[in-house]
């Protein structure tokens, strides 16, 4: 069997690259072990502005312009609903908080997303005596539904191998790689946090960052937008909300913990004042890089080995754009942005 690409991993990055290949008539096969990954448990938010201190997300406009049409096309292709546009209401904690918001609203690039009018709180279930700041252009992607549907799509086309790729069995040549009975021009590793253990890229400073979130049933909350204060509260419909997420560099096991649940509840109770029931608690491991930028590009010694990783907590926004950049680099020779190129870590 001969293909243009082997893809290792089918989280958001793997799906984005596989879809980019298919739209460009390139042949491929995907290896995915179905192990836990961050994409399966992600809140799935896309948001052009970081709400803690209100800076723009890196390359926000371009990423959004690539990502949203990408997901709309997948909805049509897979016949599913995954994109849910939602405004974010940031809960102001003080007059100073409001003033910082007004300052950010005056920025020409931020004013597209930040509304300058303070929204008064009319929901007695929410603690927001200083009102809200409204951010538009945000929303969530139903990542679990996307991954499940895309796996079925690939399985039905016999393009998915539900197994772990064994690094030791990968035979690397100058112009191609061979794995079992498959000959491929390139192998693209989209492994998420599992990439930390990839023996071909041990020099890449990829780290694990654990995130946890809880899902609550809160019929009296009656909120149709995303809330943000200490945590995000994301409506899923039918009075169900995701609450999260935590960030933990110390723990690397993908299991929920009581301590994280306690922290999430403490922050949630500072935001809402109605009863709720925790109906789920999930954990996942994010792949992060010290400079907080994705890592794209070809191995400096092995031309057939390629990396697409390091999306962190913003894979929903960044994966489609990163996959497109990598494809153009590999197929058309277009240089990668220096701040994303894997060569920034080659000494």
Q: Could you outline the blueprint of secondary structure elements for this entry?
A:
Layout: E1 2-8, H1 12-23, E2 28-31, H2 38-41, E3 45-46, H3 60-78, E4 83-85, E5 88-91, H4 95-105, E6 132-135, E7 139-141, H5 143-156, E8 160-161, E9 170-172, E10 177-179, E11 182-189, E12 206-217, E13 226-228, E14 232-237, E15 240-244, H6 258-269, E16 277-289, E17 295-298, E18 305-309, H7 315-332
Parallel strand pairs: 1-2, 1-11, 2-8, 5-13, 11-18
Antiparallel strand pairs: 3-7, 4-7, 5-6, 9-10, 10-11, 12-15, 12-16, 13-14, 14-15, 17-18
Please tell me how large the radius of gyration is. 21 Å
CATH fold category name of the largest domain: FAD/NAD(P)-binding domain
Percent helix range: 25-40%
Q: What is the annotated CATH architecture of the largest domain?
A: 3-Layer(bba) Sandwich
What is the average of the pLDDT values?
A: 95
Find the count of extended strands (DSSP E, 2+ residues). 18
What class would the helix/strand composition place it in? alpha/beta
Q: How many structural domains are formed by the residues?
A: 2
Strand content: 25-35%
Spans of at least 5 consecutive residues whose pLDDT stays below 50 are none
Helix tally equals 7
CATH class placement of the largest domain: Alpha Beta
Under CATH, the homologous superfamily of the largest domain reads: FAD/NAD(P)-binding domain
What order do the SSEs take from the amino end to the carboxyl end, as H and E? EHEHEHEEHEEHEEEEEEEEHEEEH
What characteristic shape results from the CA principal axes? globular
């Amino acid at each position: 069997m001969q293909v243009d690409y082997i893809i290792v991993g089918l989280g958001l990055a793997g799906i984005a690259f596989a879809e980019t290949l298919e739209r460009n008539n390139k042949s491929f096969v995907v290896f995915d072990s179905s192990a836990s990954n961050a994409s399966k448990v992600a809140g799935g938010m896309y948001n052009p502005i970081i709400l803690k201190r209100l800076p723009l997300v890196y390359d926000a406009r371009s990423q959004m312009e690539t990502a949203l049409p990408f997901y709309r096309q997948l909805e049509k292709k897979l016949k599913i609903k995954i994109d849910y546009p939602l405004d974010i209401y940031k809960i102001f904690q003080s007059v100073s908080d409001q003033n910082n918001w007004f300052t950010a609203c005056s920025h020409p690039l931020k004013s597209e997303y930040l509304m300058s009018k303070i929204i008064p709180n009319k929901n007695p279930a929410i603690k927001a005596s200083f009102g809200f700041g409204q951010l538009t252009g945000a929303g969530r992607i139903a990542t679990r539904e996307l991954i499940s549907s895309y796996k079925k799509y690939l399985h039905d086309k016999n393009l998915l191998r539900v197994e772990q790729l064994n690094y030791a069995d990968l035979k690397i040549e100058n112009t191609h790689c061979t794995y079992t009975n498959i000959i491929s021009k390139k192998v693209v590793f989209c492994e998420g946090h599992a990439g930390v253990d990839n023996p071909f890229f041990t020099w890449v400073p990829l780290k694990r960052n654990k995130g946890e979130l809880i899902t609550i049933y809160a019929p009296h909350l009656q909120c149709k937008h995303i809330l943000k204060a200490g945590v995000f509260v994301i409506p899923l419909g039918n009075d169900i909300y995701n609450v999260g997420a935590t960030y933990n560099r110390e723990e690397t096991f993908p299991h929920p913990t009581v301590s994280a649940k306690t922290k999430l509840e403490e922050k949630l109770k500072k935001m809402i004042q109605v009863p709720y029931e925790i109906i789920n608690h999930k954990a996942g491991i994010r792949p992060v890089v010290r400079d907080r930028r994705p890592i794209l590009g070809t191995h400096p010694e092995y031309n057939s080995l390629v990396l697409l990783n390091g999306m962190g907590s913003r894979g929903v926004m960044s994966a489609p754009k990163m996959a497109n950049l990598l494809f153009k680099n590999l197929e058309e020779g277009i240089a990668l942005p220096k701040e994303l190129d894997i060569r920034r870590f080659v000494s």
